[in-house]
Amino acid sequence: EVQLVESGGGLVQPGGSLRLSCAASAFTFSNHHMSWIRQAPGKGLEWVSAITDNSAGTYYADSVKGRFTVSRDNSKNTLFLQMSSLRAEDTAIYYCARQPSAVAGTYDFWGQGTLVAVSS
Amino acid sequence: DIQMTQSPSSLSASVGDRITITCRASQTIGKFLNWYQQKPGKAPRLLISAASTLQSGVPSRFSGSGSGTDFTLTISSLQPEDFATYYCQQSNTITYTFGQGTKLEIK
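Predict the joint structure of the above. Result:
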């Protein structure tokens, strides 16, 4: 069964940094583009970032560009999101999600999410 | 960025009802439109991709249609497990924007 398990969330002060991880299993991770999508408490879904299967391409929402960095380690089947200069408005559940092969921007499997809270 | 607007934002309906949710894109996106269902405390679930392709395991009472800028999600006969929030999402252009969601509640 395909599984995506996020970790690394927590409480951080404004201006701080955090690194999220997403461990993938039961599929060939290196064949799939991956993304991060977030959801602020009680709000809708916001696409955050994407990375191609071979890390050749990385993409970001304007709201996080220059502050967040997406990466992956295909040898460890793990996706990362390095977040810096965090702001209160970054508070959200962060989901990692898989794109089906050759289908851009569509997410067929999601992790359970990890909560990031930015507060002093 | 492409903006996605769903209507209504919330909807009350009864088991057995037929309901339709509309999603409008701020510019043409062909058929690059997905629908997700999200229940409280859970991750979203992909229901329909490419405007009308039902995902494996999704009941046939769900259907999607549309192209260009206007799309609809229809549930033909609501079941108790269908009460949730539904999101459309464009997959035509990165960033892959979502609609604001439609909360479907039991009347």
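The interface with chain B takes residues 35, 44-47, 50, 59, 61-62, 95, 103-108, 110-113 of chain A (CB under 8 Å).
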